[in-house]
Amino acid sequence: MDLGSAWTSLMDEGYAVIRGAVDAKVCDDINQRIANFKQRNAKAVARNLDEHGRLYRVVNLHLAVDAITQLLVRNAAIGVCDRFFGEPTSLYTTLYYERGSEQSLHRDTPMFCTTPSERYLGVWVALDDVSDDNGPLRVVPRSHLLPPIDLARMRRDVFGDGSIAPLSPEGWNAYQEEVQRQCNEANLAFLPMHAQRGDVIVWHPQLFHGGAPHLSPRTRRSVVMHVTPKGVPVGHMDVFFDPAKAVSRAKWGYYQRGDRHVAKFKRVDFGHEYGYRTWRLRRA
C-alpha cells in the first residue's frame, strides 16, 4: 500500500497496513540486540518471562535497547503519521512483546489523552511473521467513526463527586464497555491482522482494537510505538474524564535520533509489575 492509500485507509477505516515499511535487516538487528539484552540482564527479565522464555509487555525497552528507535527513524509508515499530525512525528513511549498481547478490544484514548485531543497514533511493527496461531492484532474497522460518548455523564455515573485515579480500572472498564455496546449496535466486528516481519499497522486514536489468543509456543515479537508531535502532553483517565486537569505542555524532555525526537524517561517497566531505572540495566 502506498502512503496515499494508507492515509485514505487510516481516515476511512481507522487503520492502515503498510507492508514492508521497515527493512527486514533492521528487524533482524533489533531482534538480535534484544536477545543480547535478555542475556546481559537475565536477573532483571526473569520474572517477566513465560514458560517459553518470551517477554511480555515491556514498557520503554527502547531506553535500554537504542536500536528500537530505528523503528521511528527508518520506517516508511511514519510519513502517514506526519500527515495526520501536520508536523513531524515524535516517539512518546513503546511496548515490546514476544508473544501476543491477548488484550481485550479497547480504545487507547483514556490512557493517551492528549491536549489538543487526537494528537496520538498507535504504530505497531511486526518483528516476526504473524498468523492465526501466534496472537495477531485485531482491529474493528470504522469503529473510529462511532458517535461520541458522553464522558461527563459517564464520569458522574462512575465516580460521582469522587476523585479519578490516572489508571482507574472503573473508568477504563466503563468506557470500553460503552464502545463495545456501540460496536454491537452498529454490527461492527473485529478482523485479525496477519503480518510479515517489517509490516507496520498504524491506527487512529479512536480505533477499537485488541489482541487474539496466542496459541503456539513460537514468538510474536513486535513493538508498539505511541507517537505524538513533539511537546504534546499526554494525560490518563484523570484528564480524560476531567479535561480541566489538562496541561498545555509535556513535562518531559526529548533527545534526538536522526531527524526525529524521542521522549526522555528514566525507567523500563516489565509487564506493569516491576521496573528498573535505565542506569541499572546493561545496554544492548
Q: What does the main sheet amount to?
A: 8 strands, antiparallel
Q: What is the number of helical segments per DSSP (H or I, 4+ residues)?
A: 8
Helix content: 25-40%
CATH class annotation:
Mainly Beta
Strand content: 15-25%
Instruction: Give me the CATH architecture, please.
Output: Sandwich
Q: In the residues, how many domains can be counted?
A: 1
Cofactor: Fe(2+)
Pfam family, one: PhyH
InterPro entries: Phytyl_CoA_dOase-like (IPR008775)
GO molecular function: 2-oxoglutarate-dependent dioxygenase activity; iron ion binding
Structural commentary:
The relative contact order is 0.25. The model has no long low-confidence stretch (mean pLDDT 96). With 284 residues, the protein is of the alpha+beta class. It has one domain (3-279): q2cbj1_9rhob like domain (Jelly Rolls), CATH 2.60.120.620. The chain has eight helices and 15 strands. The longest helix is centred in the first third of the chain and has 17 residues, at 24-40. The two termini are 33 Å apart. This is Phytanoyl-CoA dioxygenase. One of its GO terms (molecular function) is 2-oxoglutarate-dependent dioxygenase activity. Pfam families: PhyH. Its cofactor is Fe(2+).
